[in-house]
Amino acid sequence: MKLNLIDKAFLLKKTSLFGSLDLDLLLTIADRLELITYRKSEKVFQLDEDAHRMYLIVEGVVLIQDKEGNALAELIDSDFFGDESLFHERPRAYDAICETSLTLLALSRSHLLSIIAECPTVAIALLESYTRGTEFRKR
User: Fold this and answer.
1) 56 and which of 81, 96, 99, 105 could share a cystine (Cβ 3.0–4.6 Å)?
2) What value does the mean pLDDT of the chain take?
3) Phi and psi of 58, rounded to 5°?
4) Element of type H or E holding 35
5) How confident is the model at residue 21 (pLDDT cuts 50, 70, 90)?
């Protein structure tokens, strides 16, 4: 799968995190996203791994599991995950496993922080997202 800048911006627009931002800002963020693909059963990341990126699901399903292997959530297209570890600089608190083949857009911690510095609206959107609740949807 190949996505151009406009495609990435429209994917961002579908998310609760970036949906309220204007197109110019979405294009700036989209320019910093990396497209990554995984095969079914691969881990995007695992428990206790250092956190350097957050992810937006373009296509596919991700299973989120706790340290005992219990399913916490099943995430689908336009969901994002991994963002909470970027701010408190702690290791990952869960595993993220591909239930299907998966296409993600990844945003690094350094890019996210520079976006927030350039546009505080993104920080407000993140805070609003957290105040609505960050619990994963139950399977």
Assistant:
1) 105
2) 87
3) -85, -45
4) strand 34-38
5) confident
CA distance 4 to 114: 22
Please give the radius of gyration of the chain, using alpha carbons only, rounded to the nearest integer.
14
- Rounded to whole angstroms, how far apart are CA atoms 58 and 3? 10
pTM greater than 0.90 (yes/no) = no
- Which residues on adjacent β-strands are paired with residue 75? 62
Residue 59, helix vs strand vs coil: strand
CATH of domain 5-131: 2.60.120.10
Give CA separation, 92 vs 50, 112, 124, in Å: 6, 17, 23
User: Which residue type occupies 39?
Assistant: R
35 phi and psi angles, rounded to 5 deg: -85, 130
Q: Decide: 122 and 30 in contact? Cβ < 8 Å.
A: no
